[in-house]
Each structure stands twice: as structure tokens, then as C-alpha cells.
Design a protein that fits this description.
Radius of gyration: 31 Å
Structural class: alpha+beta
Shape: globular
Strand content: 15-25%
Number of helices: 24
Largest sheet: 8 strands, mixed
Oligomer: single chain
Length: about 625
Amino acid sequence: MPAAIHPVRRPIRELPHELVSQIAAGEVVERPASVVRELLDNALDAGAARIAVRLAAGGVRLITVEDDGIGIAPGEMALALKRHATSKIGSLAELEAVGTMGFRGEALAAIASIAEVTLLSRPRDEDHAWRLDGRTGELAPAARAPGTTVEVKELFFSVPARRKFLKSDATELAHCVDAVRRHALARPDVGFAIWHEGKLIEQWRACVDGDAQEALTQRLSDVLGADFIAQSVPVDFTLEAVRVTGRAGLPDAARSRADQQFAYVNGRFVRDKVIAHAVRGAYADVLHGQRQPVYALYVTLPAERVDVNVHPTKIEVRFRDGREVHQAVLHALEGALAAPRTAQAGVSAEPGRAQEAAAQPPSHAAPPWRAQQMALASPGQSLAQAAALWGGTPSDAAFTGVREAPSAALAQVAAGDGDSAWLDYPLGRAMAQIHGIYVLAENRAGLVLVDMHAAHERIVYEQLKAQQGAPSSQPLLIPSTFPATPQEVAAAESHAGALAQLGLEITPLSSKTLAVRAVPTALAGGDAVELARAVLAELARFGPDEAGSVINRARDDLLATMACHGAVRAHRHLTLAEMNALLRQMETTDRADQCNHGRPTWRQLTLRELDSLFLRGR
């Protein structure tokens, strides 16, 4: 046992200005990337159209940020290095509705306290530039085009212990590049260049042609790669005063790490739990396991409805109405991801060709018998109704209408007529069943493989979700009791009505014990305690304001379980009519590209890929 420590009484006194500056620097400047971020904020606030970042030793020995902005007047340059000196705000009202990237007036002073800083700036109405030595305060004439250069040398020279916590030059350089990348994604109208040890390592030219959406798409392609554009869908949604734009990655593009997730609020990169929670909710139905979605989302709302003065690094914000933002992001992503994405048709099928013509978008002109065929895909007893027949064989009932009422279109296909019209469908014409698991279809692009159980599971699930009302509840003959935490007890008491919407009845027996008295009928044979704890944990984690989305997700989980049991099972023989009905249902079902567990439901094998397999054209 350590000996008792007897503290020595010390008088309370004001800290020296230099020490206060270094404490503030510790909040603002954690590594070279922190300096890059703050200097980029200032350059963008100055109206720069081109910004160059020059680094040495990963930014530890040298960071230089050059811009072509409005510049700093020579009489204000010394003031720019003092704490709480800024041109961005002048009153509390301006702070509450700040529209600039920087506003505290602390960054340059904090950087100057732990590094050698030199300012070189020329306002556009000056004949020449002025150079300020941050150490001596000496101001002298210099040569420079209009704009500002901030040079930072020997970061943490005055606090060498801090340098020991820095990583390798390569790691620090990667963080600096990432800081520039985040700013570049927010401002496609500005050109950025990054130099390291005299070599250009990244450059993104300003996107000035076309409209704002085209410029953003081009910048996203330049920074994140063309694959990001190809594997994502556009987002554009407005809910009252909140607008959400950008691109959301397809579930197939999800990654094991959350390293391609970019969220912006009024042009500022943020890490916000409200936005992150809404994103998780939108992808809950389509991601497999712990995969992380990729996205670049831009939330725009009136400045007075968001507080950016929350964290020294300005990476966190607080919304006046978090629920409004949450719902806007959730609905924006759900709408973007729900749009069916289908295969491309129109590929030339000429045998022995050396090169394949570019694929054309699928034809939207429906064959003359389209209405009849779509009616065939929605038999008298709907798939949702069939899936509700838990006591029988719902998958058989789902296709009864198809067997009993074959259409003239199916008869044409069986006779070999009307093939080209069938190929106009995005998922084409069913040809065979493989091992009782997959449906093999043909469309204009090539071959389509469909996992019939996964596809039907999604169809049933979406139709069940469309039904109104709470799941039926099964009272337990003997309530299941379990020891509960104070948070679980509070959640059960606060959200009794919400739990009832899930078919759950959970009541306190004491301050430390809960009883599960009823569960959803579909899960009557499951672990009632495990189900109760999972739902209560979600409610306790996110609180009353977000309870609605928690309830919706939990309800969707139950429906997903019901849909899995109700979908057509593997190894069951389907007729051509049934297979074609399944394909048509997929083409009109939201999120039909993934099953309820996030696995893909179909894959396209193009003619180009088939030619490659058989070395055609070589």
C-alpha cells in the first residue's frame, strides 16, 4: 500500500501568459495535421481559390500554407498572433450564428507558442507584401503575390516532451494529407496541392465547370477515386430547414474500417453521434456483419440552428433540434439506398467480336404485355399475406396464383416467342434453377444469378414493413425475470408504450429486477430475456429523443426474422413461371439488391466477362 501523500499548500495565482498559451496549444495542436487544419480554415475564410501545403519531415520540421486570399493588413499582422484576436466575430450574436471556419482567434497564437511562425501577406490593394517574424515581432517589406503564407518551423521545439508522442514522419504525413483531403471534399471550387520534401504528392484542381452537383461529383471522384462514384448513389433530400446532399456507398462497397466516412455540417467536417446514428439506422437493413458503409454527406441548415463552439478542434457540433437532423439524414439515405439498382442491358451479342460495345442503360419502354406480367408477379394472395401464414407452407402459397393463372406472355416464352421483350427487363428471363438454390436468368447484358431465398426474403420483409400496426403479442404463462441495471429499469419504465409497439411487456418487480410478461408472437419460442435486454440496451443508450428510431429498428429486426421463415426455402423446385414472378417482384422491391442480413441477392455476369473466361477475341 503506497504511503500517504501530504500535499504542500500553494497559493492560488494567475498562470503566466506563456504557460496559458501552451495549455491552449495542447487543446488545439495535437500533431502537425492540427496545424494544417487550422491554417486551411483561415485560408478558406480569406476567400482563397488556390491553396498549396508544403511539408517537411511529415510536418514536424516545416509546414507552409500558401493561399491567394484577401491577405492581412500590415498593421494587423502582429495582432493576428495574439490570443483571442480575430476578424471572424465581434459579438455574442455573431458567435451564435458563425458562418466561418475559424472564429476563436486562438489557433495562430497557440501555434506560435510551440513553434517558429512567420507570416508573409499582401492585401490586394498593397504594392508589396510584408513579412512578420513571430519571435521578434520584426515587420519588414517582402515580395509576394496577393494572399498569405504562414510558415511553421520546428513544431513543439519549446516542449520537446510533446515530440516524443508523435509517430513516424510517414504517419504524420498521412494525417496531414487526410486533413487536406477533408477540406478538399468540402470545397470543390478551391484547388489544393500538397508538397512533401519538395515533391508534389497530391493535387486536386478546382472544379469550376458545370453546376454545384457536377463539381462535387468530380471532386469526390478526384479525391476518393472513380470507384467511389461507381459504387455509390447520389443523395439529395430536404426536410424543413435541413438539406442533405452528397453520395452514399452501396452496401457492396462497405469496408471493414470506417475510413471513408465523411460528414459535413455547413461545410465543416464533423464527427457527430446524431449523424452517425442516423447513418447506422439507414444501413441497418442492408449491411452484413460489422461492415462499415462509405459515404460523403453534406448537411446544410441555418447557422443559428447549430452550435460549432463545442470543442477546441471544432470537429464536434451541437444541433438545436437533433431529431430534425437525425430524421433528415435517415430519410435521405433510406430513399437513396431504396431505389432499385439493376443491370445494364443493350450489350452487343455478336459472336467472335474483338471488343464489346459500351453498355447502354436498360430500356424503360415496357413491352405491350407488361401490365399483364406485373399482375402475374402479384398474385391474388400477396407475398406478404403468404408470409403471414406461419402455420403452413407460405412459400408454396405465395406462388399459387402463378401456377393457376399462366399468362399469354409466359406461353409466348415457352414457345420461343417474345424473347427480346423479356430481355428488356433488368433481371431478364429465367432459364433454369441451379441445385435448388440459384435462379439462372438471361438479360441483354449477359447472365444473372439470383439467390432465390435471399431475394424472396427481402421481398417478404419489405411487404411486412409496409403493413401498419404492432406485431401481435404472446403473454407468457410464467413471466421471465432477470436482474437489471438501473438504466434498464429506467428504460422499461420510461418507454412502456414504445415497448408495447414491439409486442413486448416488461415491468419492474423491484428496483433491481425486471419481468418479461409478453413477447412478440413470432418469437414466443425464443429467449425472452435476451430479447428484452437487447431492446432496453438500445433505449438506454440513445435516450427518449431517439427512442422512435430504436423502436423502428427493433421492429424491423423482428420482421426480418419472420420474413426469413416465410421466404421460399433453398432446394425447393420452382417452375419457370415462379422464377419469372420472383424476378419481376425483385425489380419493384426497395433494397432488393441485398437480403435482410446484408448479403447480395443477385449478381450480373456480363458478356465481356464471359468472353474473358473463354478467351474470345484474343
